[in-house]
Amino acid sequence: MATRISVSVKGLTGLDEPDRMLAELEAATGMSWRPEPVAEGRVLSGGIVEIILVAVAVKGAEMTLEATVAAVKGVVMRWRRERLEPPEARIDTEPVPDPAPVPDPERGD
Description:
Strand content: 25-35%
Helix content: 25-40%
Radius of gyration: 16 Å
């Protein structure tokens, strides 16, 4: 079973803040993160926005789930400390089914 890790940030953010946090999460965890669409998210006019960044930790990954979540918490805490008015941030995990294996014609799948 894989685990979906999501970081939700809601509040005032700069235009490049989501991309910066995404890069920091990727560097800290070695995982590929992606933004997830949110109804009122990533508004370029400034103001309160919500962004959600998501990664999926699969079994057998280099970092254990606990170490990955600890690294994510460290990035989020550091990111919030750097702001005068830190936005709300939440880290969630949920199990997801393992992705179906992709057929490999060379193996005869």
